[in-house]
Write a structure and sequence with these properties.
- Chains A, B: It holds the Pfam family LacI.
- Two copies of one chain form a homodimer.
- Chain A is α/β, with parallel strands linked by helices.
- The first copy, chain A, folds into three domains: about 60 residues, Orthogonal Bundle (434 Repressor (Amino-terminal Domain)); about 130 residues, Rossmann fold (3-Layer(aba) Sandwich), CATH 3.40.50; about 130 residues, Rossmann fold (3-Layer(aba) Sandwich).
- The first copy, chain A, is built from twelve helices and twelve strands.
- In chain A, strands 2-1-3-4-5-11 form a six-stranded parallel sheet, with helices on both faces. A six-stranded mixed sheet of chain A has the order 7-6-8-9-10-12, with helices on both faces.
- In chain A, helix 1 crosses helix 2.
- At the A-B interface, helix 4, helix 5, strand 2, helix 6 and helix 9 of A face helix 4, helix 5, strand 2, helix 6 and helix 9 of B.
- Chain A binds a DNA duplex through helix 2 and helix 4.
DNA sequence: CGTTCCAAGTAACGCGCGTTACCCACAAGG
DNA sequence: CCTTGTGGGTAACGCGCGTTACTTGGAACG
């Protein structure tokens, strides 16, 4: 029986349209008084008695404030908008989760609008502008743009009308504040982990060398090696498609090229999907992980990293944290505070599992 | 230079607060006239000339309607709300995508609010009620509830105040319309595919036998076998945790139990993660896929299915379609149309890859 | 020339609420 | 007795827009 749930709410709540005036009438006061107690106005002089009378009336009638009307009158919506192709390509949903949670804590609402920037020639060309426009029609107080992978983007003009923060991407032609993962530190920490395990001959399965992720992670790897008095052997860096097949193929090349002691004892795969492929290449050659070859990944794609056998040690992209930080930054901006930094780097933590 | 983008939008657009009155003044007409042309009113008698004059004014001033005010005056928000733990556990984000896209087509907006029903003892207990409440404050015209996995749920009382549709879940104690995958047909189609490939001895890696997914899929499998004049050998059905490890272990058990001709030649894994584990178990025993053992999965978790080697043939859960159908159903309800059906089943299509 | 009718608009009210200015009774102070 | 607060409220305006009723100038009609 559903009868047992929240019996405190009376049936009258079901009839829509209980307004502040109704509450006022029921409590025998003016609408203004109701407004004052409901918005917890500081210097309002309302006696404790009528205050409770009003609250009782609210309960009795099942009054529910009308957010739209409130926004209209107060000229502030408590809404942020986020436009993102994540809805379309759900690789980095955790950004939304982080942002959503943070917004919720701040008693704000997040309007999610779809974008398709990823495929600029797709049928939804212009969807992004439309989405931004729609959000502005809702009078959002700030805008977030989130990308599925770290890259430069072009933000619609109209985004300038309201504070804007970029998440997991950066403004290719302007100076909007942005929040991106610290790829370099991530690459460093990954290689440091391998060094700590005693590996000195480390192969790198690289991504498309031009994207920010590849540049940063490789740079970090180089730093770690240099700090240990080693060099990054260009011979040991091979690129491939950012897929399992690409990783399989690239790992195969590097493993077949060397024998015995010359063979690298560890592979740094610049993303988890490639690590997944590398696993197969290693196993096919009768080698074990991490016994013969240690593997470390990047991205921490749960479905892969946590389910590979052995489970993959990898560096996590801080999606959730970036989302939350985005909202916090936006809150600061809309409150009129100065921008904290043009670009904020968020740490990529190492997740120890069993492949090193 | 950002200067090259959308030069059509004048700088004046940046000053907020261009209102309909401004447009009217600029066009030399009344505000009513502006309202009429902007809302494309049918029987409004506005001459073609003033109509264009008004449109020009809109362009010139960069007028943007205020959705909140419009909602207030027209008493319809064009918003649906969706509350879901998907934000928290992004397994089935495609539901949101499907719903979002459909809503966008209908020129409606989807407000996404988080839930945590999945872990009822979590710190966010009651979050769901709060989310619903918040959505109702926004005066959404309808509500969607979406779950990450097919199951029964309890919906907050207040959801009754407005048309409500459940996606990927069903009302455990009421009669709200719901949309769920046709697990049985999915199980059937999976086994039919194996039968078609000539397999008659089929092992089943089962989930927790109590959840709807397991019940339905197994039932479907049985149907397919019966239709082929075969029986579902209970010996060949083994359960395990719904993880890669669970699948590895269960598949190992089943493979080690039989030798030679008695060994099943195909495995129907009731989800892809278990299939992922089964792959390892099979390969470790020196068997090939699909040569020695064919494998078919369920769920179509892209990250797994598309990247396993060989790629996994599996049955897809129609998340996106369910989301879209949910919005369409909601649209029908809010338009006053009768409920199409208490529970709508959505097809689970077979995705052929290379493991059968 | 008076009436009718219609195209082309406009005045004015209300949506539900925040907010500012104001009011009033009463007590304290001089 | 008159002033001056002060606690406890209220009247009224405006937020930006949809909508209904009303107006007006001219053309058609008899």
């Amino acid at each position: 029986m559903a009868k047992s749930t929240t019996p405190s709410k009376p049936a009258s709540a079901r009839q829509r349209g209980v307004t502040m005036t109704d509450v006022a009438k029921h409590a025998g006061v003016s609408r203004t008084a109701v407004s004052f107690v409901l918005s917890n106005r500081e210097n309002a002089s309302i006696s404790e008695e009528t205050r409770t009378r009003i609250n009782d009336a609210v309960q009795a009638l099942g009054y529910r404030p009308n957010a739209g009307a409130r926004a209209l009158a107060s000229r502030r919506s408590d809404w942020y908008g986020i436009v993102t192709e994540i809805v379309t390509a759900p690789f980095a949903v955790d950004i939304i989760k982080g942002a959503q949670d943070q917004a919720w804590l701040d008693r704000r609402f997040l309007l999610v609008a779809p974008s398709d920037q990823a495929d600029a020639q797709g049928p939804n060309q212009g969807l992004e502008d439309a989405a931004t426009e729609k959000l502005l029609e809702q009078r959002v107080e700030g805008l977030l743009y989130a990308a599925t992978f770290h890259r430069g983007v072009h933000v619609p003009q109209s985004a300038n009308e309201v504070p804007t923060v970029l998440i997991n991407c950066f403004d290719a032609d302007g100076k909007l504040p942005s929040i991106v993962p610290d790829e370099r530190a991530g690459g460093r920490v990954a290689v440091e982990r391998l060094l700590k395990a005693g590996h000195t001959r480390i192969g790198v399965i690289n991504l498309d060398p031009d994207i920010p992720a590849a540049v940063g992670r490789l740079e970090g790897a180089r730093e770690a090696l240099t700090a240990a008095g080693l060099d990054l052997d260009p011979e040991l860096v091979v690129s491939g498609y950012a897929t399992a097949d690409g990783g399989y193929e690239a790992a195969g090349r590097i493993l077949d090229r060397y024998q015995g002691e010359h063979r690298p004892t560890a592979l740094f795969c610049l993303n988890d999907r490639m690590a997944m492929g590398a696993y197969d290449a290693i196993k096919e050659r009768g080698l074990t992980i991490p016994g013969d070859i240690a593997v470390i990944g990047f991205d921490n794609q749960e479905l892969i990293a946590a389910y590979l056998r052995p489970k993959l040690t990898t560096v996590a992209l801080p999606f959730e944290e970036m989302g939350a930080l985005g909202v916090r930054t936006l809150a600061a901006l809309t409150a009129g505070q100065p921008i904290i930094a043009d670009q904020q780097l968020v740490d990529c933590p190492l997740l120890e599992r069993s492949s090193v």
